[in-house]
Amino acid sequence: MRTKKYIVLLSVILLGILMSACEKDFLTLQNPNQMTVESFWRNAGDVESALTATYALLQHQWWDEYWAPGEMFMSLEVMSDLTNADIFYPIKGHKEYSATPTMYTVYYFWQEDYKMIFAANQVIENTPNIESLTDDQKNTYIAEAKFLRAYAYFQLLNLYGNIVLVTEVPKTPEDFYKAQSTPEEVYAQIEEDLKFAKDHLPAQWPDSWLGRATKGAATAYLGKVYLFQEKWAQAETEFKAVTNMGYALVDDMYSLFTGKNEYSSESIFEINFTADRSGGRIESQSLVPNYGDWLGLWPTDHLKGLFMADTTADGKPSKRVYASIVFDDPNSDVWYFNGKTFEEYYGPDETKIFYKKYNYYNSAEDAYEFYSVGINYIVMRYADVLLMLAEALNEQGKTAEAVPYVNQVRARAGSVPIDAGISQSDLRHHIREVERPLELCNETGRFFDLVRWYKSSSVQAALQANNAPYWDKFDDGVDEIWPIPDDEIQANPQVVQNPGY
């Protein structure tokens, strides 16, 4: 969604609603210049403004934190076994599995997701009362809000484990102080929201509204939610539905991460960014780790080994290798080489390797180095769905049916296909430890995968097996989730800190 406008509107809406809800019993006069529930929620334009403000929270923009967007991305990426880091606090703390309740990354994710939930709850509660809307309009708007609420809760659940479930706008002071719900209760609410969203969202939007949630996004996320709970058959059903919705892998994988192929046939849901920095706005990704040799993140030796083994039939690196990383190879390039080969730029150096995703020159911005300027961030793409579908099938013993979905992804890369007669256990290992790392590295999902796969045995052992940096600092039973932010503990006496923190 285009979010240049109305980003500050959310705070105004919240203030108006709180003032109206909490003080209307003793206000005797109404200020005509003050926004209230009654004066705001009048028509479709008002709902769309509120939804725009809700979508804007996906960007995780904080005007007082210059580096915040990049730090949010990095704090998720560095916890995996695929990414190394040499960077400032608090990212270093996440990399060393030493998160604390006072780290501002820990606080900001909690804060921004609950802002989104609060805003979505307002849309869900107030839209049904707008008489000028048809039932279909109401359901579509509510479906968007429920999708965003589910998205926020799924992220909170994976990050913090034990969270507060809020499905209504607080009406009294006591409503602000709720105890944590069980993960099962939160999952049930997420499923309910996504089912409603799937039933009422359109398959696509006009070009002027690209970025709004679609039926495909809700269906894919519902499948992912089932997958994370090991509800394999239900996940299979949702993912197979997505495969019949017209999505397709693009030929040029790298184009997905350049800003030149946004809302492509492979994109199921992405967060809109522009390069607009007018009026103090910082509406850009700020994915600092992708600028090579001077700051940020880079692939581990383990991931480099996976890429070097990802070859075509004639033994050459696959197209996926060249799309994902920069390394010592005459065909490996990136814009800041200025037309030079790797060796001309760095000299022969087999130890250097950098991520290439989201690293793209923008001539209009003259390559402003701290920003991946207007590049949208893809949070769900069709390749991920194909691999999750293969996993769901394989876990049900449908290995032969799963293999073609993995090979679809490998065919786009030009990689040698896996054998049709592969065993269930070997395909499980391949999906977990080869295909998903190669296809989805540097897209922030790896750590959550490790936790869901290995939490019942040992996440530390999985990290150790791949020689992840600081694997020995990971504490099983503690570091699978972050601590609850100290600010929340202090503000809400009903909230209990996670074990080990």
Describe what this molecule looks like in 3D:
With 501 residues, this protein is mostly helical. Helix content is 45%, strand content 5%. It is built from 19 helices and 6 strands. Helix 8 packs antiparallel against helix 9 and helix 15 (399-413) runs parallel beside helix 16. It is globular, with a radius of gyration of 23 Å. The two termini are 38 Å apart. Mean pLDDT is 87; it is low at 1-28, 61-66 and 365-370.
Quick structural overview:
The protein is 45% helix and 5% strand. It has 501 residues and is mainly α.
Task: Summarize the helices and strands and which ones pair or pack.
Layout: H1 9-23, H2 37-40, H3 44-56, H4 68-77, E1 83-86, H5 91-95, H6 104-126, H7 135-160, H8 183-200, H9 215-228, H10 232-243, E2 267-271, E3 296-299, H11 301-308, H12 319-324, E4 325-327, H13 342-346, E5 353-355, E6 377-381, H14 382-395, H15 399-413, H16 424-440, H17 446-454, H18 459-465, H19 486-491
Antiparallel strand pairs: 1-3, 2-6, 4-5
Helix pairs in contact: 3-6, 3-7, 6-7, 7-8, 8-9, 9-10, 10-14, 14-15, 14-16, 15-16, 16-17
Q: Note the run of SSEs as H and E.
A: HHHHEHHHHHHEEHHEHEEHHHHHH
Distance between the termini: 38 Å
Q: Tell me the radius of gyration.
A: 23 Å
Tally of contiguous helical segments:
19
What structural class do helix, strand and pairing data support? Answer: mainly alpha
Query: In terms of per-residue confidence, which ranges show pLDDT below 50 for 5 or more consecutive residues?
Result: 1-28, 61-66, 365-370
The outline comes out as globular
Strand content: under 5%
Which range best describes the helical content: under 10%, 10-25%, 25-40%, 40-55%, 55-70% or over 70%?
40-55%
Tally of strands: 6
Largest sheet: 2 strands, antiparallel
Order of adjacent strands in the largest pleated sheet = 1-3
Mean pLDDT: 87
